[in-house]
Amino acid sequence: MDKSLKKIIPYAKAYKKNIVSNVIFNVLFALFSSLSFVALIPMMQVLFDETKTNIKKPVYTSFLEITSYGKELLYYYISELTEQKGPQFALLLVISIVIITFLLKNLFNYLAAYNLTYFKNGVLKDLRIKMFDKILSLPISYYSEKRKGDVMARMLGDIGELQNSFFLIFELIVREPLTIIFTIAIMLKISVKLTLFVFIFIPISGFIISKIGKSLKSKSTRAQKESGFFISLVEESLSGLKVIQSYNAQSKVKSTFFDSINRIFKLRVSIGNKNNLASPLSEFLGILTIGALLWYGGRMVLIEKLPNGQPVLLASEFLAYMGLAYNILTPAKAISKASYAVKNGLAAADRVFELIDQEDNFYKSKNPVDLNDLNNAIEVNNIDFSYNNKDLVLKNFNLKVEKGKTVALVGQSGSGKSTIANLLTRFYDINKGEILIDNTNIKEVKLDALRHLIGLVTQDSVLFNDSIKNNILLGKADATDAEVIDALKVANAWEFVNDLPEGIETNVGDAGNKLSGGQKQRLSIARAVLKNPPIMILDEATSALDTESEKLVQEALENMMKNRTSIVIAHRLSTIQNADNIVVMQRGEIVEQGTHQELLAKNGMYKRLVEMQSFD
Prior knowledge:
By secondary structure, this protein is α/β, with parallel strands linked by helices.
């Protein structure tokens, strides 16, 4: 059994009722699918005047002989009706039997499909929930190595591929094989000799079909990976459209897009052609078998005779036999076509479970602590840290932030300022050293409890395509409208929000594009204010703003930082001059620290940065 199929089994267990119902109805469908052709024999016997006379009513002996008993009982009543009421009445009876048989066959087909649809859509729903839960829980470090488009392709395209192809395997397991088995059993009952002749052709057909489908899985995997790159490219192009157009880089982006879409085109055409070959090839091989049967079976009807002069095979039985032989073609064709599609589904399942089974490699405490507040201080002790095991970004870094104090981190780009924010929130884990909150290592604190203690305002104001109110409620889901408005007032945002036609119910657009940079940043601050955490981290919160917006945002930040422990990663002088402690960083190490006036008096690196007005 394929490993991906094994991994789906736990998800399937939740739908045992539908699976069992599907199996039962598929068994009944397969049975009546075969019987529908058997029911044609008595009708054709009446038409060809092959009904026998003086047939004795059969006696029921055992369940094992139920098929023969049923057949002989039907023939008995047909011969009786033909003698008593004429062939027309007998014909009407057998036509009714044929109609009822086909009705039941299609009813069971629908009921089987109904349960399969519920089952497979339920499993796909559960897989999407599991995958989205994993996407949200994986550390930020995972996405620094992966394209967002590839993750989106797995969530949308690969799970969709499972629905379209992989779940065909559940039909392969029951319905189609049983249809073939029941049909062959009846064919053997009609003529062993003719059925053995059919068996010569089946292995040959199967061998030819399997040879063609061998390379499908690897090509499907390549196509799905390329689709991930393609989605990522489209997402990046939409996000960076201003840059592309301002630099007249359309031709370069188009070239990359064309190369990707061309690779997808070639792979999809190759896969599609092989899939398309499955149906006509299996049908052609099937019709070759039918042709051979017509020749061999025709001899048994027309030429070969029994000792009593009767043909070895009656014409009515031969015609029904041909119908049964063709009845094998439909499930055989479905199996060959599905086996191609299942290979695509297996490739998609591998990619889905690769993400679901992804280990986050984060240290997890066996007995995590549930911290609710900051009582004393945050301590950063002897930290070494590097991204992806490359050069150290922080080297032997030490810092203490006492409760209620504001500490600013300044330095040139690449000095490691934002890395401190990433480590405090455990977006990344440190290589060496420890971070303590009230003498408790943050690795021993419940992750959601740690992040509940921290409010984060970043340079990039992340807003979702929703109302202002719902964006701010991320900070506190059960807040009232009055609390939301109070948070907006603290963040200097209520004035512009109140002027909007729909107020706090106004939709901000995709990524907040209906608002200015300063307005978006003030909403981000309002979100942090509503959360009301004891620790606030401001990661270059004003660096992307114009002077007027910066003034409003700075006032909002000062309002928010009152009586709160704050770590400010600074870009501009105005953000940090009132800080209790300013830490100057260079290449991951502290070179100076003190108050604004103390550092100016030292006439060192901080003073040069102030003079340059560049806190990148």
